[in-house]
Amino acid sequence: xxxxxxxxxxxxxxxxxxxxxxxxxxxxxxxxxxxxxxxxxxxxxxxxxxxxxxxxxxxxxxxxxxxxxxxxxxxxxxxxxxxxxxxxxxxxxxxxxxxxxxxxxxxxxxxxxxxxxxxxxxxxxxxxxxxxxxxxxxxxxxxxxxxxxxxxxxxxxxxxxxxxxxxxxxxxxxxxxxxxxxxxxxxxxxxxxxxxxxxxxxxxxxxxxxxxxxxxxxxxxxxxxxxxxxxxxxxx
Length: 236
Ligand SMILES: [Zn+2]
Ligand SMILES: [Zn+2]
Fold this sequence. Notes:
With 236 residues, the protein is of the alpha/beta class. It has helices spanning 4-18, 35-40, 63-66, 82-93, 97-112, 130-136, 140-152, 174-181, 191-195, 211-222; strands at 73-78, 121-125, 160-162, 185-187, 199-207, 227-235. The protein has two domains: 1-40, no CATH class; 42-235, Rossmann fold. Helices cover 42% and strands 15% of the residues. A four-stranded parallel β-sheet has the order 1-6-5-2. The chain starts with a helix and ends with a strand. The structure holds zinc ion (2 copies).
């Protein structure tokens, strides 16, 4: 009798033969992300304030940006160059586990470069509205957050909810983006006990203006979180 593991391996062999994986970036057969395209990803080595691009220690928001934001820092892993763009867009619509692990590993490595009190950390992801979740069948931010939480042995909380169906932020102007997301997020009952005194790491794939992450941060801090840090692959 083959074991479950052997069956899974067999299933993968058959699936790969029928739908051979192709690199999300260059379309070459063989893997969801080929070694060459992965090598092209340019990691950010010099930490900056995500809003104004001033140099900052450990990705903290600079004092003037911090006065206007609930976020304490946003850790941005890589530059938004062509191969990462294609991988992230492909990953949004295809649920390839390998890609989730690769991108999650990138996030994990970035957060590990920053010293923090590990016993006070919890991980959350930017939630989708339940209708959107139902439409898509998965939340890529949540899948990435799971990898980060697993690799660092941090608890993951599903305490943050998006109760207002919002338009995609992409293509909206700055004011409409704010209105679109105003009061879009809330916390499940009982969240205070889970958040009190914690550093919350909120994971998303990419950040644009930061309005979404900041709205999440506001809600989490109202719920008692000590600090809220964003962790994203890139700034688009
Ligand atoms: Zn490739
Ligand atoms: Zn700044």
